[in-house]
Structure formats: structure tokens, C-alpha cells
Amino acid sequence: MSAAAGLFLATPAAATDKGPGAPGIGDSYFPEHGNGGYDARHYSLTLDYQPGTDLLRGKTTIVATATQHLTRFNLDFLLKVDSVKVNGRAATFARSGLHELEITPPRALVRGTPFIVEVTYADTPSKVPVPDETGGFTPWIATADGALALGQPQVAWWWFPSNDHPLDKATYDITITVPKGTQAISNGVKVGERTRGDRTTSTWRMDKPMATYLATLFVGQLDVRQGRSSGGLPVTTAYSKNLGRYEAAAKESVERTPEIVDWLADRFGRYPFHSMGGSVTSALPGFALETQTQPVYDPRFFSGGPDTYVVVHENAHQWFGDSVAVKDWKHIWLNEGFATYAEWIWSEKLGEGTAAEVADFFYDQYPAGDPFWQVKPGDPGAADLFHNATYYRGGMTLQALRTEVGDAAFWSIIRTWARAKAHGNAETAEFVALAERISGKQLDALFDTWLFTPGKPATSPTGATPTAAAKSAAVAPASIAKIEKVHELLKHRKP
Ligand code: ARG
Ligand code: ZN
Known about the structure:
Layout: E1 18-20, E2 38-50, E3 55-66, E4 69-76, E5 81-86, E6 89-96, E7 100-104, E8 114-123, E9 140-142, E10 147-149, E11 170-179, E12 183-185, E13 189-196, E14 199-210, E15 217-220, E16 222-228, E17 234-240, H1 247-254, H2 257-268, E18 276-280, E19 296-297, H3 309-319, E20 324-326, H4 333-349, H5 355-365, H6 388-405, H7 407-420, E21 424-426, H8 428-439, H9 444-452, H10 466-474, H11 479-491
Helix pairs in contact: 2-3, 3-4, 4-5, 4-6, 5-6, 5-10, 6-7, 6-9, 7-8
Bound molecules: arginine and zinc ion.
């Protein structure tokens, strides 16, 4: 297998023919997500939001490059569009499919040349129907004092038009105007803010490539804090003023973000972004999400008191999920298995059970006949993207690898993966190839067993027989309850 090195630039399903761009980027689970024929480079969003009425007015400008001769191309978007311009000239547009906006520029676009699309729109996102494929989650939640845009993989359609797939990353400028006294948080760093009359406008800049689902908007009456990490990076934390009984524990947990990011950087290598932070919403999305540099947490993660496990999980995703993003949603374990394994090494650091013990605990906890073992983490299916198997069996896969290759090779694999794929996209076969190259071992059988074979593997992640694994689980790590709580919330439907 060839070495998994080099940076992958977004290469949407390129066609060399002339004509319309494909209505999907070619994802195996979500064929309509993303589009073909062009590569988005930069998004510039100018938004105006009115809490209460949930009126969102916006203009999104996209700088893209045509990857084929393009007579027509699609964006993914659900809101009502007023006008579209391409290279400054009015373009015609039409709707098709679930969320396609088909744009026909006045002149065909030439392969390899940059172009600018400007979409002007206004709508009430909370009134736009949510398709079944979100599994019951609501990606745009209007609150009494603001709104939250948060979802995976579906969320952008409710607030900006895009090439909606992780394969096409881009940089962002997000400018948002809200009533004076209301705060708005997005990704990266706030580069400007001014109040004119009774409206306040702030601009956020994400200067590293970002997948569309990792863009977030959090508007409300917020307690916003800005500081610096020990390494000098800007830190933004934001808390809804309506967190009620969750407030103290939420703040105590999320304020530890810089310390946790530094600790993760010691294991994974340099933190990939130029800022960090965290937001706790009162909107009850039903999960937390690794939105780039600014994860968002449902306050109920902190219902039992402070919880650092979920902060570790979302910040581990900054390396694995955000910087190293999936090429196709079927590779989701590269995100969730890695973030789960980060929780297990955190348990070890807290003295609440070693990563190996936690891995064996979860292995032992599911009997061979449990449906848990029927979901393949390496290809869970669209409906089981966030199944427990993606998380726990994904984490067990990494422990099985560590057991097989030893600590030195394991950490070299993890760090090399984070560095070689930084700000790009990756797939499972490339991880296997890298692990084989660094360890010098043939690992196909190991990965086949853990990722792609339904049924409970014959030996545990540490190589113990089922009986011995049960014994190790008898030293019940105190962390299990906390880890399970994190995962209960992450996988479950909105209560
Ligand atoms: N990626 C998120 C996390 O594990 C979970 C998102 C769950 N989303 C969902 N629609 N179920 O941190
Ligand atoms: Zn996760």
C-alpha cells in the first residue's frame, strides 16, 4: 500500500466534459450532498438576524474555481432566494431535488478559471421543513433571544448556500448584524465589531480551510469571555445567560478548554488552528458538535456537575474531524473513534482507568449477541452514522492497533496522520497504509476484523480472551459512567 502522505486539496467529482455540474459530489451515503464541477475557495457571509421573528437576511459571496467547462452548477440551500449573480451579472436560478439551487450563469464558465457567485436571500429558517435524513434533529433552532445553527452533516442549508460536503473546504468571513445588546458567535476570531444605532455588527474570520458543517452561528443574550491560551492563541467562550442550573458546571468545564487543548497537543501534535473556544447554548440541540475552533455544547452534558470528557471529545475533533476531515461520510470512525479514544486517554490521565482498561470494559460490556456488534464502524450506513459502534468500536480499533504495534509506533502513527493530512481529507485505507508503513506490520486482518466484520472479535482490544477481559473490567473504571453519559447524549434523538 502506498504511503499516506501529502495534502489533499478538495477535488469535487471532476468531469472533463462540458455541461452542467453534477448535483452531488459523490458521497456514498448522501449522494445529493455537495456538487460537482467547481471548487469553493472562500465564503463571505453578510447576515442580519432578528431574534424573536427569526428573520434572517443574507448575502453569501462564494469565490470558486470551475473544474470543468460549466454551463450550469448547483449550490445546496433551502432558504428563499431573491437574486443570484455570477461574476457580477444576474444569473437565473431554479430549485430541484431536496435542497438544490441550480444556477445558470449568463455565460458558461471556463474550466480552471475562478468565478464569484453572489446569492441574496431572506427567510425564516425555523419554518423551513427539516427532512427525515437529519434523524429528528433540528439544525436551526430559534430561541427567545436568538438562534443556533448546529448539525452534522446537515446544517448549512438553513443559513448559507454552499457546496455542502467536507471534501470541499474553504476559508470564511462571517459578518453578522444583530440588535445591540445581543451577541453573535461564529468560527475563528472576531476581527471587528461596531454598533450603529441599535444594531451591532461583528465579523468573524476562519483563516484555515473548514468543512461546511463545521461553520456555526450562535446568537443570543450571552456571557462572552475573551482570553489567551498559554501559547498566546485567542480563546473565546460564550454561555447563554439562560443556562439556569447548568451554568456553573458548564462554565467550570468549558473554561478548561485551553488546558485541555494543550494536553491534547502534547499527544496529537501541534493544534491545527489559530484560535480556540467553546459555546454552551440554551437551545438544547441534543448533542455537542466540534464546530471549528468553537465547539458547541448542549448544557445537559453538565447536568451531573462539571464534565471534562465532552470537552476533550470535541477538542480532539479539531485534529480528527476538522483538520483531518472525511473524504466520504462512510469514514466517520476516523472522526468519532479518534475523539472517543481521546476520552479514554483522558481517563488514564485522571487516574480513572487506563485507555486499555476502558477499551476492554466496552468490549466486555456488549455480549456477542448484542446488535452493537452488527454495525461496522468502517461502514456503518447513513442511518447509523452516530451509532455507538462508530464511537466505541472505533475507539477499540485504535486500542487494538496500539496493542499490536506498541506505544512508540502507535503514537507515531497518530501524530503523523494528524500532520500529513492536516487541513485536508482522508479515508480509512490511507490510515491503514500509514499504520503499516510506520509499524512495518501487515495490518489488513486487524482492521478488517475491527472495522469491517460484523460480530464480536474473538479477543479484546488488548488481546485478552473474553474471560480475561471480564476480569480487567472488574477494576471498574470510575470514568465509564461519565463516558457513557457523553455518548448517551451524542447519539440520542432530541428528548
Ligand atoms: N460529531 C458529534 C460529536 O460526536 C455528534 C453529532 C451528533 N449529531 C447527530 N445528528 N446525531 O461530537
Ligand atoms: Zn464526536
